[in-house]
């Protein structure tokens, strides 16, 4: 025996004592230090509801698109943990962020099929840190806009290689070479093995779900057929690789030229001619939930605040009605914001805007409707002013806004929307 000279029994006694302490108080110890090894469940869908561990799951979350980009460099990396901790402290449960950067500064995809491992490790860190901070991620995998490369970069790559059918950005949706580029990208991301957790992305329940493309538009085909074909093909491709995660398109929510709502609900006439249609695009069985954005400042020429706020109410109720009656799927408002560049802007106006959004989600949740949650655009931490835009805020710098956000977390939690792993914290948070 290794332990001789009468040391065996004292050693056994000591080990037994340590084991007893761990078994009795270990859960408390790891919970205090934020390292609970609780097995997570995937968020699922049942009809018009998100479900988690058999309970309807309503979402109060936010957007911080910049996570992966800022996780690349050591000086900016701490911002990710700081923002995730702050979100969790507000009872927020889902953060939407970019899982793409194509051919730009800190590019994840340098060229078609070529990836920067340092940037991929930054995305690994974002996912691992989100798990530590009790927050799930909605990950977008390409941009319709030019920021961070987007479909413009894919078209440029095909054109430079002599493979492109057209220099139009919309060829992203129909060019066979570009479709091949994108599918390779999707497969690479979904099957990526996280270097920190050892879990493939497609097997990680920290990821709430995937978004095909941020704010797709295909103005060269106003009928919507081109975009619809792309959605059906790419959503089927994603589901063939990853059947565990939820999937959405990433729509702004405009009604198309054949929709009976195009005149009554769209912000202005042009919105029906962008090659999108909310109901048609969200209908495929491979799409699990509908996504909608809310930007009255950019969508209407009317400057009157009351007009804009009334539009927000109509817009949200219309899409929740679609989820309830047409789609039979959850509807999530994945971006919304009020511009600080409006003439006579006052932060109190933004509070009114947030409250309208939160109230409509809450009322839908109380009625067990399809309004599943909302994600403001966008949240930052202090010292990031140069990365801000006209919609971004540091929530805790304005107490009234901070209070609104926490109250929404608590209201939804009381209907049953809290994560099991957050329940005790939310009870304490909301008891005040």
TrEMBL record:
Keyword Membrane attributed: yes
Signal peptide (from-to): none
Keywords for the protein's UniProt record, in alphabetical order: Glycosidase, Hydrolase, Membrane, Secreted, Transmembrane, Transmembrane helix
GO molecular function term, any single one: mannan endo-1,4-beta-mannosidase activity
UniProt domain Glycoside hydrolase family: residue ranges: 41-379
Single Gene Ontology BP annotation: polysaccharide catabolic process
Record-listed E.C. numbers: 3.2.1.78
Record localization: Secreted
A Pfam family: GH5_mannosidase
Swiss-Prot/TrEMBL catalytic activity: Random hydrolysis of (1->4)-beta-D-mannosidic linkages in mannans, galactomannans and glucomannans
Chief site of localization: secreted
Record keyword Hydrolase present: yes
Gene Ontology CC annotations of this record: extracellular region
Membrane-spanning ranges: 7-25
Enzyme class: hydrolase
Family membership noted in the UniProt record: Belongs to the glycosyl hydrolase 5 (cellulase A) family.
The protein's name in its UniProt record: mannan endo-1,4-beta-mannosidase
